[in-house]
User: Fold these one by one.
Assistant:
Number 1:
Amino acid sequence: MNFIRKPFGYEPVLTKEDVKNSVQKKKGPRPNNWKNTLLRIWKIVDEQRALLIAVLLLVVLSSVMSLLGPYLIGHMIDEYVMKEKFSGMPLLIVGLIIIYFVLALSLFFQNYWMIGIAQQTIYRMRTGLFHHLLHLPIAFFDKRQHGELMSRATNDMETVSATLNSSFIQVFSSILTLTGTFIVMLSLSPLLTLLTMIIIPAMFIATRWITRRTGKLFKEQQAALGALNGMIEETISGQQVVKAFSQEERVKKEFCEKNSRLRRTGFWALTYSGYIPKVMNFLNNISFAIIAGIGGLLAFKGHVTIGTIVVFTEYARQFTRPLNDLANQMNTVLSAIAGAERVFSIMDETVEKDGGEVDERHKLLGDVEFRHVSFKYELAEQAHTLKDVSFHVKPGQTAALVGATGAGKTTIMQLIARFYDVEQGTILFDGIDVQKLKRETLRSQMAFVLQDSFLFEASIYENIRYGRLDATNEEIEEAAKKANAHDFIVKLPNGYNTILTSDGSEISQGQKQLLSIARAFVADPVILLLDEATSSIDTVTEVKIQQALDVLMEGRTSFVIAHRLNTVRNADIVFVMQEGQMVEAGTQQELMETNGIYANMLKQAGIL
Amino acid sequence: MKTVFSYVKPYKWPAMIAFCLMLIELSVELIQPLIIAKIIDRGIIAQDLGTIGYWGFILIMFAIAAFLSGIINSYFASHTAQSFGFDLRNALFSKIQSFTMATYLRFPTSVLITRLTSDVQQVQSVLFMSLRIMLRAPLAAVGSLIMAFVVNPKMALFLLIGTPLLMIFLYIIVKKGVHFFGEVQRRLDRVNRVLQENLQGIRLVKAYMRGNYESSRFQDVSNHLKIDTIKALRMMELIQPVLLFVMNVSLLAALWFGSIDVRNGSAQVGELVAVVNYALRMTGSFSMFAFIINAVSRAKASSERMEEILLIESGIEEYKDVNSLSPDIQHSESLRFEHVSFQYPNTKKSILKDVSFTVSPGETIAIMGATGAGKSTLLNLILRFYEPTSGEIYINGQQISKWPLEKLRSIIGYVPQQSMLFTGSIYENVSWGKQGAKMEEVRAATTQAQIHQTVENFPEQYKTRVGQKGVNLSGGQKQRLSIARALIRKSEILLLDDSTSALDVKTETAFWEALKRERATMLVVTQKIRTAKEADKILLLDEGQVIAYGTHEQLYETSEVYKLIVLSQQEREVDA
């Protein structure tokens, strides 16, 4: 008994409730979900309708040819070989060779085109997913592991790919054979046809019983695979820490746990889906016995001829075979649906809202205003990161953000960049509500040096050019010189053409920051955001860059988070942040006069 | 494929059982037509209801037997396949965990991910199929061929005329297929790569509005994946039509020459009909054949990729026995570099050149130098992430290459330049440094790292979830958690790689104050003179060379470079 409940020690994945729920929801959302998912895939497939029709016609052609071949051979044996008539045979054989050639060609081309259609569909889905992903709000990414998201574009898409490659043709040709056989059977004996149909409800029930389980199991399996992918990506990206703390055994254990979840769901999914062909075979045999038994009875009574029964049993077998194939395809299709659903669920996430009321070519002046802005990160259960923050920075001014770590300085930067939307209050650019501006308008006129500098796997040229795609190589080198990056770049084996890898170690953290600064130089923005732009750079270099940065900031609205007093002292306005609130704000002069926190700070530093 | 398939071995019994059950099922399927013939001949045609009932009953019994073996086969086959995949993934992951950091440079994360998931999946599904249906097609074909030979060897021989040609054809296709499918998997690596990069750099992509640019980059890699997949699949699609055509023409040949024999009287018409029927049955299994060859080629390509990892022999960290450490550990010196030079594998530039210095127990050394001078690399060598190109490093008087790796790293607390937190709670992240650490220990470490108060203020305190790489924490908070993670280990040696850069002056001062109580030997990479002054000695690096080593006062006197650094920091910093 225990083996049936927990074979090989595999704990059941589905509870009775799971299965029951899926029964109760029969008319509810679940089947609809399947239908929707299939419809969405179909819409993409349908974009290549002409090719698709060609494939379907070829399937018809190959079906006809594969019937014609054996028929003609039978004819040849009956009419020529049996009757020892050889004169017409060579002609017939030539005819047959042509038929077989056409069959081979039509088989090849239907698959040839179908593979094209399937892979084009996959390509469209995959790039669609990626495109959508890039338009999701930052908050979406805060909640998810990279590897888990990656799994959707690779592993989940693979299940769809495998199904589209083969199932479409198989389903269609099965339906074709099914209809054909059904018509022939009906013309032979409606009564016996009815008998054959008896098992169809049983097949239907059995298929439902199984798919009700496999549908959910496949989804579980893909989810487990996604979780495993997430863990692998995170662990290997952080391998340095794993090694430094000798936690290899621990991550192996964690991997093993996630891995066994995948094994368990995979086991049940495979086992249940393996039922289908067996059940179908069994029902076929029963159906055969019924036809033979009842048919025999009917023959005694003279309702049907014996010849009909004999022929009929053969057709009954032919009838159930495609049915069997169809039921098998159900499983493949279900696993594809499980994968596709996970892909579509991302594509159904709402993208960042984008204002469109203001012309996208709107030139920013650089006037930035916060009005009673409050904000809280979705993931952090902590209290508000920003509480009722208001300030106004005029075009060309430099504003320095000052305060302890976690006071909300970076958050203000993130809100200016519109990575997040405010919870309360308004942010205005040139007096226009940020909600009315397109992100493109906004960000294309900003440049950033973020706390974590990130480089792409590309040449140094490309990485700096990221700031402005039409920058020439000369402009890039110019920017690199200003950022003090030129010297180390030319010492690299391939200079500016050196390909960087984002997890490689060709260049140091500080050098990465220099490149980020060069990127901002290239961008030529109206608004400049510098978040600890020089934190990993040695102070000698920093002084040099600072002069260039000062030039850059001239005439541009700049927001600066920095340790260097010089930078802060040069700012037109200083904002002092404390636990999410702006406790002091004003020009250097004003703050000195108030004699508050900032003035104190300077006193402590020995400036005043 | 050999190495990969050795992972089936532990499951040879379930596999055998699944295999036997498949044979039972197959044999029942072969017997069925005979029973059906009996029902028709003796029952229906002879109008004998009793016989129909009798054979009908037997048919149903056989059907039940086949059904049961089929169902049970499901369990055994799926157990074998899943466990095989499970073990293979574990083995791959373990192997990857034993890589040296240099080996990771050869295999980027994205490549390893594909191998651990997609590649395993390919092989696993082939194993499952082979235990379920794979034998059916070859058996049916071979069975029919044998029957044809039994009936009339001469005619049957004609069925084989195309075989040599087919063999060559299949050999070429499989060889090319393995190559093409390998290419497909490599394309998948690239897709993974671009995906990972964009997820990691999502803020940058958004900040510079590079959505369309990145989309087109992704379209490019997806397109290559598409093209190569199509190429591989289309080539494999050649198999079925070619097999069918050759077989059908052979059949016609058999028919033609067979009919000549019939005319000569050397063969019976019945024999000819039978041979033709068997030939037709053979062709029926060809689509399955094509499918199998396709799957096997794909599995072979994936196996080769996995074996590339499983069979790596160099670039693996050695785990020596703890006892290999000689007992004469000196405690007069904590750390010593002797003429250490280093360059990253496959690069020409030396990052460290002839570095020598000694650190006494309990000393604090500040490491300073320009960006790219080799500061982080120096710390990496102490942890033995990389091996020096020449020279030796000693810890407690013992060459670090002689230390068992785990022992060596267990006495070191390391705070990397980038905080690198993991998905999980704050407690989990801090106790990462010491498994199963008590709450008091965690609190002590976080207090020392000046983050305890902040954590206490979170509504969920130490249970607060940290997103991947600590996305929901501020830069300073991440750094302090990363410091706490190292402090909890109470290590002999602490390595801090510029890990207080995001802290405000007040917090930082308090932190260094709290750290003074530590008795550990400390190596602190820093940009700040203020921090360096507090250290016992300062190690000044320039382009990989030690240009000064001594106290603040000594260096201020003797080193121009150091003076320059001090000058650059004349005006102090604020709580910014």
Note: Residues 152 and 343 of chain A are 6 Å apart (CA to CA).
Number 2:
Amino acid sequence: MEWLQQLVNGISLGSIYALIALGYTMVYGIIKLINFAHGDVFMLGAFIGFYAIARWDLGFFPALIIAMLLCAIIGVIIERVAYKRLRNATRIAALITAIGVSLLIEYTVIFFRGASPEAYPEVFANKSINILGANISSISIVILAVTVVLMILLHFIVHKTKIGKAMRAVSHDADAARLMGINVDNTISATFAIGSALAGAAGVIFGLYYTRIEPLMGVLPGLKAFVAAVLGGIGSIPGAMTGGLVLGVVETIVSALGYSLWRDAAAFVILILILILKPSGIFGKNTREKV
Amino acid sequence: MKKSKAFWGFLVLALVIYAVVQGMISGGMLDLYYQNILIQMCINVMLAVSLHIVIGITGQFSIGHAGFMAVGAYVSAIVTMKLGLPLIVAILLGAVISALAGLLVGIPTLRLKGDYLAIATLGFAEIIRIIFLNVDYVGGAAGMVVMNMTTWTYAFVAVVITILVIANFTNSRHGRGCISIREDEIASDAMGINTTYYKVIAFTIGAFFAGVAGAIYSHNFFIIQPTTFNFLKSFDILIYVVLGGLGSLSGSVIAAIFLTVVSAYLSNFPETRMIIYSLVLIIVMLYRPTGLMGTKEITSLFKFGKKGGSKV
Amino acid sequence: MTEKKTLKRFASVFLTSSLIVGALAGCGSKEEGTSTDSGGSTSDDTSEVIKIGANLELSGAVASYGSSIGKGAELAVEEINAAGGIDGKKIELVKVDNKSENSEATNAAIKLATQDKVAAMIAPATSGNVIATAQIANQYKIPTVTASGTAPNVTENEDGSINDFVFRTCFIDPFQGVVAANFATEELKAKNVAIYADNSSDYAKGLAAAFKEQIEANGGTVVKEEAYVADDVDFKSTLTNIKSANPDFVFIPGYYEEVGLIVKQARELGIDVPLMGADGWDSPTLVELAGKDALNNTFITNHYSSQDPDETIQSFVDAFEAKFSEAPNAFHALGYDTVYYIVDAIKRAGSADGEAIQKALAETTDLSLITGTFSVDEKHNPVKSATVLEYVDGNQQFNSKVNP
């Protein structure tokens, strides 16, 4: 009974990690950049959703869509302004820029609205459904449903559409893709748009589920989502989903065993073990180093 | 011959700086506020230089440097506060244990490359922090109260030693081995250089001096808490190195001093401090991705007409 | 192409150099400022204003506490100046942000002591940051009063010695823990209790320890003890553990940011027993985070209640609402009281000299303030009463007052 409850808790947490991890993994797959600002796009999504619901009295789904759209635009702006000119620079320069963008977003938000937390309004009447002794709140069912729908949509985009094909081609070999007539710049922007939209959706879902949002909320989930992406095999979309869910469940198990204070350490221990034993992750392909 | 000239030149410069500052302190021109900024500057320079040897010289991408700083800070605090030994012993022990931690972390992780190495070092640093968070002997999350024992002299001597050791290491056979790894790991491996050995050496030396910096930090700020050493601190150190110019020792020193001054100055505007800071970071990276100094050293700017001035 | 490149390079060089120049110019002007300052400070006693420094968490993790204390202090300073100041001298409040970081708290204290030459300081809101300033206060002989640093080791060092120049306006943690435990056994008839404490603050750990000791002395049993760290958002797995231990009362010492979520998630998981906390819960945000319904059947111990019918309290509440258009919480009240506490001491000392103020602070007896009437004991702690409040539909309701 209790374990069923814990599993439900873990999957709810994991599906949020998975949504953020997808953006990380897509961006990394295509331009090999650890986009540290991704966690902050997630935060922006949460705030956009909050203002849409609390100030403009919109429902959950319109708010979700607005947050996703605005985050997609923000993601493209970040890419065009900050990362585009660094495409041929060293990776470390790009990484520092990403850190800079992340700090800029966080502290601009703090500048305009202060650092205090905000409480998400309730959009659903929160009922708990009792299944086999486990309390499952209606919100967590909605979250799971939205997550699954978004992932199916993403899978469809990547595998069945033209832009998805272009994305896969660019991530495989950007130069060859360019020679084949693919507009690499637009493809990269599209990747940022989709990844950021997913982060925005994760932000709204996070706010709804955990209630508290604040300007620095993206830092730790962002980092954890990156761990999830590495765990699943960075660059792999099913990997990010699996990695996120595994991480969420593992963290819940660690807390359930009474070691809640070591929960964050558990995430990083897993990360290091994976990196040392199987650096390509659960779903990753082995790549041989080119000389 | 040339090397020893630079060595003595640096020592004389250090002595002059020390004499001037010390004169200003005893003359009452620098009160505790400015002395404190100077000490912070010294700590940041040490951190920057100790990371420079890992990233700038050996080309290994580590973003978990605050973890080693934490080891130095906590071990030295235990030595002075719990065991009652003198500060100098504490600094040395903190540094040695920190170097050991560097060795332990380095051996498994340095097989990794690029971003994977970066994220693994970040993970290790967070694990170190969480361990301190959960050990009640050092106060857990609430932190550990430490007596203030450092003076500006301690900090300055430590900086001078750090810079001297790392500059000499860079110019030695080991240093050249490390540079060859930075330039092309596979090629240097093929040339018969034991790349793992050099990588671990550089990493351990870096951890050692980060430990020294941590020890001085803990004895200057009255209380140490695990949250101080989170990954944002690691990013700060990384920023010094990259902003100064990857591969430039003087660059990282200048960047550390520059950013400490900027940060102290901006504390009068708490609301906009971080915004300006992050904008500086982005703009420098966009317009000068190699950092302020590139791989050049400041000494090479003064050698007009002479060849072979630069270290790399 | 090359032209464009050089232009870019020029722009970057220009930007950075202008920044450097700006920073240096800033330093230069600051140095000038201090030199005039130090010139004037030799005649501190005869100057027209008395400076009180406020080293507060205005940004960073616990910004809401620091800024609340700052608001309360502002109101108090305004009132005192309107009433003629201290013997005709006006008070000036010098606020410095310590970003909720201990090293910045030290820097801020040094700045207040050496650059602004304050007569007394309001210390940071959280105990760790107060400790980071204590040695500076002792060294420069500047009396320092924290409004909300409740950990015992703020005023008393590990070896039993007292930090001469550090005082506080609030009661200490063990007292609140004892009050909560007695309330649980006597009023709520709790037998099997669980404790879920914030492990990242001395405050919550101190409360948990005192509560546990007292509840066991009262004949209760602690069936489950769990902990969390600040900034967590997911407490469900640990709460599931707590639920399976079947407690009839849960004590949750911590701060409102996490407690709000804990209360909400606990109710979602079907934990319907009374929950209790302490002054760290006190914030309007708690109600928003947890929801009104979830907060029913929860209690807190606090420094004061804005619903307390007492006349002085009500006039403070009115004045505060007029100035800031919000109801004052405990941090506001404590910040307000801290200023009055310092000013009372300065008046009795008859000068703005640090040692005289220190002596007067230590000798305070029966000082009547918003958060209660108190005398200072030999450990520099005020001996004062605590208030128990109950949440009813999102509003705090005055339950009872407990004397020490």
Note: Strands of chain B lie at 144-145, 223-224.
